[in-house]
Amino acid sequence: MNFLIVGAGFTGAVIARELAQHGHQITVIDQRSHIAGNCHTLRDDNTGIMEHVYGPHIFHTSDELIWKYINKFGEFVPYINRVKTTYNNEVYSLPINLHTINQFYKKSMNPQEAKDWIKSIASDDIQEPKNFEEQALKFIGKDLYESFFKGYTKKQWGCEPSSLPASILKRLPIRFNYDDNYFSHKYQGMPRDGYTYLVQNILSHENIAIKLTTKFDALLKNEFDHIIWTGKLDEWFDYKKGHLGYRTLDFIKFEAEGDFQGTAVMNYGNEEVPFTRISEHKHFTPWEEHHRTIYFKEYSRACTEKDIPYYPIRLVDDKKILDEYIKLARDERGVTFAGRLATYRYMDMDVTIREALDLSKKMLEDIAQGKLIESFYHQEGIS
Ligand code: UDP
Q1: What CATH code is assigned to 2-79+192-241+313-379?
Q2: 230 lines ligand 1 (CB under 6 A)
Q3: For residue 294, is it left (φ>0), alpha (ψ between -120 and 50) or beta?
Q4: What global pTM score does this model have?
Q5: β-strands 292-302, 277-280 pairing
Q6: How far is the CA of 348 from the centre of ligand 1 (A)?
Q7: Which ligand 1 atom minimizes the distance to the CA of 267?
Q8: pLDDT tens-digit profile of 231-247?
Q9: Tens digit of pLDDT for each residue in 170-203?
Q10: Would you list the domain boundaries of the chain?
């Protein structure tokens, strides 16, 4: 069959590869001038440092199959993400661990003492946390929440943490030991040659043609047997039920001599500091040597139609609009919706790849049974 895949990020690339390997003809288009979507990396012209153009991406997973899969397309160098945060001019370790707790409270507690201490200061009247704020108050208490999460989250999401889902905070663990690894996954690493190289290798197959700087046009529907849309769900429907809310990011780039902050990612918890974090990209490749450095101040704001969407907000109003689009999508024929933007979810890279592989498998089974003429909608976890 002849497929059009709209979007050359991980979702589009993985599906393209899987279908191509089964003899299908694939055209991948992307409106940007490069592949790899928001994971795009390139070597900075002046310094040669590998730049994460749309912000830091660290690969981490506990999914054995995905780790094996991704390693087929490029070499990974072990990399542990250790994040710091500055609050009131003091530097602390994240995710909240025994070092953070002892430093914050100027104590020297052991793990059990710290557990008892946090229990004594956390809110015990919250049974089932209904939102981000309640989740934080229940697990770390008011002081740590207000210093490390409240201001940062208001800057990042542009709303009160009490209106955000608890799931956002659940991304971060709290540890009663000195383990400051930001992620708890079994595998973690950085692609030695960047993410764009990985995606390039995934897409490198004789049955795949890539067209960059090419916007989707509805007329293309007639030229292909089936379309896989990895763009925004609301955009596919010309925003006829309204806009799904996203946050976008602005990066201000700086170049200097030496080492600016001594680490890859420094968050800023204070609300009055306008940026959320500063990332210094040469620290993502500690095996390389660079005399100069580049770093980026990261600012979050509401995303307009012209901006690049990063984080789906998913507040109550968004969910209502999302329901409307899901109904429309169920009736749509000849198109499959896949990935972060088309299912409007906050997804890590490993989950994106896993879903793309699972979806490809399902599509291939459906094709074998002659069912793909009927479109289907990738609904898993969407509502
Ligand atoms: N967060 C925070 N303070 C921090 C780091 C994270 O309040 O110093 C909150 C914030 O709301 C953020 C969420 O935790 O959106 C998830 O953090 P994560 O580091 O997973 O965000 P990402 O790297 O995906 O932007």
Answers
A1: 3.40.50.720
A2: no
A3: beta
A4: 0.96
A5: antiparallel
A6: 13
A7: 8
A8: 999 999 999 999 999 99
A9: 888 999 999 999 999 999 999 999 999 999 999 9
A10: 2-79+192-241+313-379, 83-170
